[in-house]
Design goal:
Elements lengths: L12 H52 L9 H4 L20 E2 L8 E2 L14
Antiparallel strand pairs: 1-2
Length: 123
Amino acid sequence: MKVKISRISGFTLVEIMIVVAIIGLLAAIAIPNFVRARQTSQADACISNLQQLDSAVQQWALENGGGPASSVTLDDAKPYLGRSAAGEIPRCPAGGTYAVTDVSSRPTCGLGDSVTPAHVLSL
């Protein structure tokens, strides 16, 4: 009588646990970096939008003879943003809101310094 020995190869429980532990370790390292990269890119996009708004306000002041103390609104700057025929105010990718007061003041984001990295247009 012949005894059949089957050799079905597979992974042991220990090998599978080691692989899962390595994947978990890599995820623990990678996820915070992805979150930080997202926050940085949102702040960079917001600052770019603030620069566009500042340029639009300055163009409005040049064309309408506004001085440094002249009051300006976002609706005044719309035609100078160059986004579409109707004019479109950009949106903060992190959910903040933009505001302008006068020609000499820089536009601000509602999030400002309350988030890291800050959404502030520097000099």
